C-alpha cells in the first residue's frame, strides 16, 4: 500500500472514532427520564394543535410553487452573466508564437443572439410574475 493515502486513512479512522465516542458518551451520560412532555411531538417550536392529518390550504402550495418557479429559474441567469461578460481571448504573449488562446465564454458572433434570448427569458418570467400577482397568489388572506 502506498504511503500517500496514509493521512486520508488516518483522518477517516479519527472521524469514525470521534463519532463512535460521541454516540457512546451520549448513551452513557445522557438523561434517561422519559416524561409525557418529552414524548409529545414537536412542530416548529410550537405545541401541536389539532390533527396532524388535517388539510392544508391550497395557498400554502401556491406560495411554494411560485417560490420554486422564480428561485430555480433565476439560477439560470448566473452562468449566462458570467459567460456573457467574460473576455473572449487572452492577450497574446509577445514571446509566444501562434494565435491568442481562447477562453471560456460565449463567442462574439453569438453574444447579441444570446443576450436577446435571455431578455426573452426574463420577459417570460416577468409575465408569469404579473399573472401570479393578478391572480392574487401573493396575497395571504
Can you give a write-up of this model?
- With 141 residues, the chain is mainly α.
- The protein has a domain at 58-135.
- It contains 5 helices and no strands.
- The chain has helices at residues 6-29, 36-39, 58-74, 77-84, 111-135.
- The longest helix is centred in the C-terminal third of the chain and has 25 residues, at 111-135.
- The protein is flat.
- The termini are far apart.
- The model has no long low-confidence stretch (mean pLDDT 79).
Entry summary:
This protein has about 140 residues and is mainly alpha-helical. It has a domain at about 60-135. It has five helices and no strands.
Work out the strand percent: under 5%
- Helix fraction? 55-70%
Secondary-structure-based class equals: mainly alpha
Order of SSEs, N→C? HHHHH
SS summary, helix count: 5
Low-pLDDT stretches: none
Mind describing the biggest β-sheet? Answer: none
Write down how many β-strands occur, each being a DSSP E stretch of 2 or more residues. 0
Q: Which whole number gives the mean pLDDT?
A: 79
Radius of gyration: 29 Å
- What's the end-to-end separation, in Å? 67 Å
How would the global form be characterised? flat
